[in-house]
């Protein structure tokens, strides 16, 4: 990860993803800053950065192709994240021969919307449907595997349990999926007390990875929101009982969870997921924290080995 870039100068340059052309110097600066210039060490890899519209949102997305892709990975990031933080997963997927399609969620990264906020989790489903539409427009190779970290995992859970999953879907990979956050009862009480008086509170950065370089980078990342909006907490409070009451799915997701995760209530969440899916496969990683996509290398290699065995 190298020199800084200017997000406000990049956003107006983005064209529709399906028709985006050659990359500008500002796009290349963005890729360099986040280590997404993956073609430099994977010859033949091509990338494209663009946007598509969903309701009131301008959603920024990007796609990568290896020379001969054999499948596709659709990637959804976690809360406060954006596509730029997933270079390890992207590099692994390209090494597996997958094309990769991802987007920044509303209010995150380069996409439009109030910072880190949403009025209802149904808006996330609309964005995911838009991403599926982009995959179809780009004629990305099937099967389409799904990947979601934390809130990205929650979006995929919602889709699998309450939507109508498409027949071209392959495996679903969930990293530390959100059902309930840690200390949810206390957080909900705090939300109810604060909601009449404030629209947001300052964000508290946590040590959610054992990779010290990642934690340092997040502090200076220009695409990080610095607040926790009460609207987002309210949307989560309405979503949790709905997803916990959802019916059972016959799908069998691959679920990876760290036992040192202090962000989600992972024991409760895994119990919920055992009851929602047919034979889900779990990998519980000792000493791994919440941001699994950016954990230290030894932990990344363990879960990538687990995934290689199942997606080979």
TrEMBL record:
Coiled coil: none annotated. Pfam families: Hydrolase_4 (PF12146). It comes from the Bacteria. InterPro entries: AB_hydrolase_1, AB_hydrolase_fold, Hydrolase_4, MAG_DAG_Lipase. Residues 68-297 form the Serine aminopeptidase S33 domain. This is Serine aminopeptidase S33 domain-containing protein. The lineage of its organism: Bacteria, Pseudomonadati, Pseudomonadota, Gammaproteobacteria, Pseudomonadales.
């Amino acid at each position: 990860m190298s020199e800084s870039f200017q997000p406000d100068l990049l956003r107006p340059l983005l064209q529709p993803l399906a028709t985006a052309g050659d990359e500008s110097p500002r796009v290349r600066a963005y890729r360099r800053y986040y280590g997404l210039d993956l073609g430099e060490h994977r010859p033949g890899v091509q990338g494209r950065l663009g946007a598509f519209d969903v309701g009131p949102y301008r959603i920024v997305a990007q796609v990568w192709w290896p020379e001969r892709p054999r499948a596709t990975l659709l990637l959804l990031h976690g809360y406060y994240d954006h596509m730029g933080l997933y270079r390890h997963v992207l590099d692994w997927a390209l090494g597996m021969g997958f094309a990769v399609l991802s987007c920044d969620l509303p209010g995150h990264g380069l996409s439009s919307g109030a910072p880190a906020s949403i009025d209802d989790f149904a808006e996330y489903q609309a964005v995911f449907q838009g991403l599926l539409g982009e995959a179809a427009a780009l004629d990305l190779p099937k099967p389409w595997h799904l990947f979601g970290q934390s809130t990205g995992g929650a979006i995929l859970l919602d889709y699998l349990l309450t939507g109508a999953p498409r027949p071209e879907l392959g495996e679903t990979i969930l990293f530390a999926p959100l059902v309930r956050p840690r200390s949810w009862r206390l957080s909900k009480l705090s939300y109810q007390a604060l909601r009449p008086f404030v629209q947001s509170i300052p964000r508290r950065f946590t040590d959610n990875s054992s990779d010290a370089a990642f934690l340092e980078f997040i502090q200076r990342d220009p695409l990080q929101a610095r607040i926790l909006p009460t609207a987002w907490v309210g949307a989560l409070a309405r979503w949790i009982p709905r997803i916990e009451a959802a019916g059972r799915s016959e799908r069998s997701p691959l679920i990876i969870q760290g036992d040192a995760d202090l962000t989600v209530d992972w024991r409760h969440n895994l119990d919920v997921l055992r009851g929602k899916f047919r034979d889900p496969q779990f990998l519980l990683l000792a000493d791994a924290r919440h941001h699994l996509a950016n954990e230290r290398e030894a932990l990344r290699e363990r879960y990538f080995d687990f995934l290689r065995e199942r997606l080979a």
